[in-house]
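Provenance and format

Records in this collection were gathered into a single text stream. Each protein contributes a sequence line and a token line. The two records reproduced below are adjacent in the stream.
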Amino acid sequence: MNKIVFLLAIVITFSCKDKVEQKLSVQEIVDKSIEVSGGVALYEKSTITFNFRDRKYISEMKGKRKTLKRILKNDTINFLDVLSPDGFERFDNDSLVSLHDSLATKYGNSVNSVHYFSKLPYGLNDPAVQKELLGETEVKGKQYYKVKVTFNQAGGGDDFDDTYVYFFNKSTFKPDYLAYDFHVNGGGMRFREAYNERYVNGIRFVDYNNMKPIDEGVSVLQVDSLFNNDGLKLLSKIELKDVTVSQDSYN
């Protein structure tokens, strides 16, 4: 009898040890999420195009050089916006448009924001990103890792003081939900629920239900509780259309 008890104690001890060893760090969670969404190598050799709200977006990777583009074209305008390591430029047909620095920054941030959200979770390992595992939470009956993301002022852009919260599914490691607060234009908070998941040439894309709190004054860190208790309302749909992905041989 004592031998059986002893063996059970050993099994329980090693079982508990395995659970401790299997606890993932925030970096491991993000790395796994990027991998199941396409993987760094694939993101960094792909040219991605899509349409969003009557504009065409193009993301080009040439080696480690990233160039983000936006094309605005209708009966009255024909602009090409280009954001690269050299800065932001706007072209009217082939002519460079002279812009005030504040306007160039505004347009550049707008281009970067759309491309950033389109390729999540890629980008969460950028040098300016600071990640913190807040713990685990349940959202609509499923278990999630809850990760807080902030940005260093150096390299974090004009919105470096915004706070993001990502919810990584514990089974799939995919970011099914995200939330963020912002401080421009009076400030506020948004919560995005991913849907319409599809893989295009190996890279994951989703659309979002874009929501806001019914009652203001709630911390972005509590947004999962609001969502679980119907405390959010739908503002808009974030839909990427006509997505294409091509891999270039020179990368």
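Adjacent record:
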Amino acid sequence: MEQRDFGDYLRHFDYDERKAMKIQLPEMLKLYADGSAQVIDIRFNQEFAAWQVGLGQHIPLNELPDRLDELDPEKTIVAMRPHYDRAEIARLYLTMQGFHARYLTDGILGIANHLRGDIARDYMALVND
């Protein structure tokens, strides 16, 4: 995996990259279900201890540089948290490290809202098939 230069990244940043850096919940769930995405919850430990959604791996943003070996370079890495700010910081950092990374536009709150009731049952059936 080759690290990227931030200046070079900015020189080539365009509308296609702006679109590619984001992922919406339906696409993320599909990639996660078929094993092509690794989802990371980048909230701080205190936030994670307060509540979890049961999806993804917890790697706090401030621990990310020291835990890159836990990420699969063959998968799309999806960073998530309740809002996009830290998720985008994580995505940009991972991109500079050579990973294919995106951030979840719907955030963890979107997952919690989406995966309840019959939708959660149907999704878990899909994942466990």
